[in-house]
Amino acid sequence: MNHDQLLADEAKYCSFGDTVHYVEPPKIFARCEGSYLFDDDGIPYLDLQMWYSAVNFGYANPRLNAALERQLHTLPQLASQYLHPTKVELAKAIALDAQRKWGYEGRVHFNVGGSQAIEDSLKLVRNAKGGKSLMFAFEGGYHGRTLGASAITSSYRYRRRFGHFGDRAYFIPFPYHFRGPKGMTKEEYGEYCIQQFARLFETEYNGVWDPKAGEAEFAAFYVEPIQGTGGYVIPPKNYFQGLKKVLDRYGILLVVDEIQMGFYRTGKLWSIEHFGIKPDVLVFGKALTNGLNPLSGLWAREELINPKVFPPGSTHSTFASNPLGTAVGLETMRMVQETDYETMVMARGAQFLEGLRDLQRRHPEIGDVDGLGLALRAEICQADGFTPNKALLDRMVDIGLAGELEHQGKRMGLVLDVGGYYKNVITFAPSLHITPEEVDLAIVLLDQLLTKAKRLGA
Q: Most CB atoms closer than 10 Å: which of 86, 323, 326, 394?
């Protein structure tokens, strides 16, 4: 079917509710490999967002594709009430890794997508806390668009037309230093944010704590250690240690959402490892199967999830722990244990961050750059380097997907993702296997892209 017919049929027969087109007409890709997508004309597009960090290990990764193919020819389907080896082995691998790092015994519970795993965690937390349904979450936080997950996601637009399921979270400011009060270092701002949160517990009249009963009204705090959709905002190093002390003091669980930042995006298996604290519950998904199969899950401490307190059937999905997904997930865990991803990711991330800083020196419209591993950000602003400039970034996205950039006499494209509170942040999540040459190419293409976008807006 030709390109125009596909677009016409999509416009007539497909729900627009399950997608977001960043350009019009929508881009159609034909194949993928490594760090690249290719359109029907064979033009390569260097992908710097890798399916929102679901394809951490590169498109068509040979090792992970082979694991899927092996499972396809042995046990591709099985009802979830039966066991298959890779489910148990994958759960064990994740649980033992957590026990080595944090000293907690725990268990792993599977589902099919990030939002669904968040929903499972809400059940787990409510169950552990006697049915309490109130949660803390961050401004700028994103945990999914199902009814429960959207209640702890700060964007009202995800809830506006659907009402509330249970209680909306109490949203706490994230320590977003670039847009925080002036005159504070990043660490000072982190400490200030901790003090503001701790203030909620000072007296019963601050609204969340009953000092006579010694009980908080809130069950858990849901956090992304590095904000994802919120713009890859990286907190001060001291922030989460201070936050965890407050939570432990008042008996509030810490639920860490690693759906976008897990599996070495930041140079660690879990991004929370950079901050020296122990989660009570950890939710994962996306890159577990490198985008080959929808599989997600959560890890929780034994006392929260053992069969006596969370018995069979507490929450369930037909396709949870499906054999194709767990086979690839297990191979992912083996691969990251056998390969020094930490060194590789931190080296490529440092190279990429230095390239972004060089671009910032040449383009005042880049107001802020930051990064941890290969989770990087560039905030696009007016020429003052601070006022958000969504229009300029929108033009950059359009030009990148037009496939009309040039490198060494050949046409190329660039795939970017847009995030941030003002939708003015490029959130970079390239393949963890990106080569040094591809990082250099990314900077060259970004320079070209930004120059063209500024010229068109002049």
A: 326
Q: Which CATH superfamily is domain 3-60+340-457 in?
A: Aspartate Aminotransferase, domain 1 (3.90.1150.10)
Q: How many CB atoms lie within 10 A of CB 74?
A: 10
Q: Where in the chain is the domain with CATH 3.90.1150.10?
A: 3-60+340-457
Provide the pLDDT for residue 163.
80
What is the model's pLDDT at position 165? 67
Q: What angle do CA 189, 190, 195 make, to 5 degrees?
A: 95
Q: What angle do CA 17, 59, 149 make, to 5 degrees?
A: 35
Average pLDDT of span 17-40: 92
DSSP 77: -
Model confidence pLDDT, tens digit, residues 140-153: 999 999 999 999 99
Per DSSP, the residues of 170-233 read EEE----GGGS-TT--HHHHHHHHHHHHHGGGSSGGGSSEETTTTEES--EEEE-SS-TTTT--
How sure is the predictor about 1, in pLDDT bands with cuts at 50, 70 and 90? low
Q: Which tokens sit at 97?
A: 């890794």
* CATH 3.40.50.300 assigned to 75-338: no
Q: Long-range pairs for 331-339 at CB < 8 Å and ≥24 separation?
A: 331/63, 331/64, 331/67, 332/57, 332/64, 332/263, 332/287, 332/288, 332/289, 332/290, 333/90, 333/93, 333/94, 333/97, 334/93, 335/57, 335/63, 335/64, 336/263, 336/264, 336/269
Is pLDDT of 458 > 80?
no
**CA distances, 344 to each of 2, 66, 133, 271 (Å):** 41, 23, 41, 16
Work out the angle at residue 249's Cα, subtended by the Cα atoms of residues 246 and 252, and round it to the nearest 5 degrees: 75
Nearest by Cα to 94 from 429, 432, 326, 310: 326
CA 346 to chain centre: 18
With contact defined as beta carbons under 8 Å apart, do 92 and 277 qualify?
no
Determine the Cα–Cα distance for residues 37 and 59; give it in Å rounded to an integer.
8
When the pLDDT of each residue in the chain is averaged and rounded to a whole number, the result is 96
pLDDT reading at 44 higher than 80: yes
What average pLDDT does the segment 348-377 reach?
Answer: 98
